[in-house]
Amino acid sequence: MRDVSLNPVQPDQAQPVTRAAAQLAWLDDPAIAARLVTLSAGALRAVLAPEVGGALAAFYEVTPDGPLHWLRPAAAEAFDVRDPLRMASFPLLPYCNRIRDARFEFDGATIDLAGNDPRFAHALHGNAWRHPWRVGARSGNAVDLHFEHEPDASVPGDWPFRYRARQRIELRDGALYITLSAQNLAGRPMPFGMGHHPYYPRTAATRIHAEVQAMWHADADVLPTHLGPHPAVDALRAGMSPDAFDLDNNFANWSRVATIAWPDEHRSLTLRADAPFDHMVVFAPADDPQLCVEPVTNTTDCFNAVGPREQVGGCVLQPGEEIEATLSWTPHHSSRNFAI
């Protein structure tokens, strides 16, 4: 059984890059630049595209040799079509990854999400990434982005619960911090999960280091079948090449720390996550330049999955209840071994 299925993003939408000024040519387009928010702190830069699903368009370092990319920068065409899948990273709310057949049972009712995107057979990544976010308070190194969802029964597959979400994006202490928060504004309990979907530069030398306990095996639709051992678990602990396996899988009970390293370039990027980001997705498809290591609060199809809560993740927010947690990405330059 394969661990992954076809990915909806085509390979030419994500070119591997670590240093490429041409990848930021869209910053020189006044029509695009006017819709962006650029944060700076020392040599670090973070570029936000609020209208494109509240996405991060680039995270890079200014160097004498040009921009050094810590995340894969957005493709120029992503701004015209407003496609977060071609951005550097984007928020996932009110659930992460797929929901089987776009439906699940909750609180005695069937929640039908079918029709929210004809490209996908299963509901994908929630709905916040499909809408513009509003810019709130901002400074030179930080910005708040806001999104509020009001259900619309006339829209097929619309999420039927009202909620409010916020991203606090900040450059400080030599790192990128993103604090995600959400509040249930509905008059009834709401199932919930959240995460972020970062793409990293992928080269032949790239290695991923993470302490994980087990992997969710998946069917041809990238939906989980069972939690168990896999060679990727030990490979991640040792430093796994993205080319080692054909992966689009959830890993349970990780240490909430992962490092993406480019040892030939003597640099690495460390991802840290607060609870309840207790799950990690590795998307490293074969023969494809894309690479994602995603911090999430729930496994794929968590609303339908059967298993202990610590293995499945997700939660239920009561009316008025709010949840908040922080993610950070810290760049490192070093000639030492990057293993955790």
UniProtKB/TrEMBL annotation:
Top-rank taxon, per record: Bacteria
Pfam family, one: Aldose_epim
Lineage of the species this protein comes from: Bacteria, Pseudomonadati, Pseudomonadota, Betaproteobacteria, Burkholderiales
GO molecular function: carbohydrate binding; isomerase activity
Protein name: Aldose epimerase
GO biological process, one term: carbohydrate metabolic process
Gene3D superfamilies given in the database record: 2.70.98.10
